[in-house]
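One such given next:

>
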Amino acid sequence: METTEKIEFPGLPLAVYREIAAHLRQVEGVAVELMPQSSPHFDYYQSQIGGLSISWAANSNSESRQRVQEILAYYQQRYGC
């Protein structure tokens, strides 16, 4: 059974979301998708992306999950999310 988690970093630029997704895709057993912004109104200061959808394969191990958490913590600290 696959596990999916949605992660949001309000105000984070599209380029950084893509960087995070690329970084996470390097972790074994992890799949990442960029979720579109759901707001009907354009706001220059709002991210163009609604968030990340992170899925773990049923056979993923705790090491993979720990690595994902470390990557997310790095970006949270770096960008103050």
About this structure: The radius of gyration is 13 Å.
